[in-house]
Write a structure and sequence with these properties.
Blueprint (H helix, E strand, L loop, with lengths): L1 H23 L3 H4 L61 H14 L6 E5 L6 H4 L3 H11 L3 H10 L15 E5 L1 H7 L5 H11 L6 E4 L3 E2 L5 E11 L2 E11 L5 E12 L2
Parallel strand pairs: 1-2, 1-3
Antiparallel strand pairs: 3-5, 4-5, 5-6, 6-7
């Protein structure tokens, strides 16, 4: 009898335990299927590699603007120097005859030395401003039209004078650059003082144009400037006639400009 009671109690306990498991599940210790990792087994996750920084593009190159030199001061009252003569363009033999005739007529008695500009002066553009003035001068000088045309054409470009020509007087040539240096001062008197210091035996600076001729070479026309100081000078158009001996002599002249004290 006691044995039956004991068996019944054991069966009852087993049934109760099964009901508890069916409601709450297995105890926590039995629910684990893997053992927890030990500290030695935990490997820290390697950080993700940082993205490589892209190099910044270089700034666009800004071209340097070259500095423009300041323009040199220019004396507004200074006349422009005559341009240098092109290479190879020189006066011919007939033109030197004209220069000799003009010097013979224009120089003072006893004057034996002069300074000539080594380059001819510009032509019509320097003397007259328009066609009306050209016609007026031609009428005053009584020159044939082809003479005036030839003179204008020859003076379209400057020409050079040369040493060793028979001009009836001793002469020196002063070049384009020397003229500009001597007369670069704003004070004309200072320029002439420098000129007379350099050429003590030459009281004058003479400039001439190229000479023009008519078709028969009977008439000639030339422009000439005689300058002796800041307030001493003149410019003239001069006509010449051929002489029986084959040379030229001054016939007439028209005053273009004059300075005076």
């Amino acid at each position: 009898m006691r044995c039956l009671v004991l068996i019944c109690l054991l069966l009852a306990a087993a049934v109760a335990d099964a009901r508890v498991k069916s409601v709450y599940g297995a105890p926590a210790a039995e629910a684990r299927t893997t053992a927890p990792a030990t500290p030695e087994e935990i490997v820290p996750a390697a950080p993700a590699p940082a993205a490589a920084a892209k190099p910044l593009p270089p700034p666009p190159a800004t071209p340097m603007t070259p500095m423009t030199p300041a323009p040199a001061a220019v004396d507004p009252d200074a006349p422009p120097p005559p341009p240098p003569a092109p290479p190879g363009l020189a006066l011919d033999a007939l033109e030197y005859q004209i220069v000799a005739a003009v010097l013979k007529q224009g120089l003072e008695p006893g004057q034996t030395h002069v300074v000539l500009a080594g380059t001819t002066v510009p032509g019509p553009g320097r003397l007259v401003k328009n066609a009306e003035e050209v016609a007026k001068v031609a009428k005053q000088l009584e020159v044939p039209p082809d003479l005036l045309d030839d003179w204008a054409s020859r003076n379209a470009k400057p020409a050079r004078l040369e040493t060793g020509q028979a001009l009836g007087v001793a002469y020196e040539l002063i070049g384009f650059e020397d003229q500009r240096r001597l007369f670069s001062s704003a004070d004309p008197a200072a320029g002439w003082a420098a000129f007379h210091h350099r050429y003590p035996h030459a009281p004058l600076l003479i400039r001439v144009s190229r000479a023009g001729f008519d078709a028969a070479l009977t008439h000639a026309l030339v422009y000439v400037e005689f300058e002796c100081g800041a307030e001493c000078g003149s410019g003239r158009l001069v006509t010449l006639l051929r002489t029986p001996g084959g040379g030229y002599a001054v016939k007439d002249g028209a005053l273009i400009w004059m300075t005076s004290p």
